User: What shape does this take?
Amino acid sequence: MPKNLANFLKRKKFSIAIGSILLVCIGVLLYWVLFFYSTQGYRTANRSISFSSDIGSALRVFVLNQSQHNDPVKGCWYDAGDYIVFIQRNTQALVYLSMAYQYAEGEEVKKDLKKVIDQQLGCVEQMIAAGYKQFRDQDVHGVNLPPSWNERVYPQQTYFFRDGEGRDIYAMLSLVYANLGNEGLSRRMRDTARTLENMTVSENCCEEGPLSLREGEYEGLLDLADIKDVDATSLPDLWGIRFAALLNIEQEEERTIARVLTKVGDRFDSDTKVFDYIGGNYDIAGTIALERLYKKRFGSNEFSDLSSRLYAYLHGENEYAVNFTEYDDVYHPCHFFSACDLSGALINGPDEKGFDWQRSDVWRNTEVQLPGQAMYVLAMVLYTSL
Assistant: This one.
């Protein structure tokens, strides 16, 4: 091969190699620029958080869960770590947060709680006014993409209340406004609930099937909101702070609550794996809240030690040696994109397969559910003040 031709080919190969490297570098740079801007909403929310109380870190996830999508109603909470907005889950979380507000003693705690509650009340009220009950569905779960990309890749379905639906939403709002001290709005929500017939059920969602209130919860809710008379002792003994348990508190069914707390204590002592199911951590937090309300209503310290053991379990004294409120690999879109600080978020916890980050369905262990987080906030407020 002539020397000049060989030199030419070497220079050509070198130029191609340099060009390829430059193209790769430009592509990576372009990707990260687009990536950064597509998650800017999370970053802005993360910087804008301003909580001054001891429960501020536990409230952070609610601000970060405000939708970054171009929804018909802005700023609603995503349900858990996914991009679905379902009004029933958000309203249920507001019930527990408003209870925390009602029982909180410090002004800073109340102020921080009110900040989160007011933001989401605006979302719920606007969704109701426009007839929306859900934004997006199970079909947006294919790949974890930033919200702005998710909008372009997946169908962005919106769902309206079906005829007669929404009774549970208005009933829960009646409780929320009562807890906030607004009896006029509470009465108005209760009156509207009485004109409706059906509980709200999610559309095309979710991994475990449609979302709705569990058996016993709905009936307990209707009595709590003074819509229907229900005998609390006729309802299932649900662990935690579900509406059935709250109705037993209201109707002063001391023996029923004591039976539930005794059962939890006995089974927790013999085998903590009894709580190894999706959302088990939230029922643990809810049981702490229930015990504190039991103490407040009946003046009994009989189960105080149970609350202490459950509280310690959530914060690291468990067979997994995991602080479930400070886990580094929380399943959540904004955490996946390194755009959020999610310390103080209570994760699902172990299920029947245990606790293993390597599993393919790790979200079952490490997802954050907002109604559950609200139960945890309520537990924190009651545990530290009662």
Summary: The chain has a mean pLDDT of 90. The beta strands are 85-86, 132-135, 158-160. The first helix runs from residue 3 to 38.
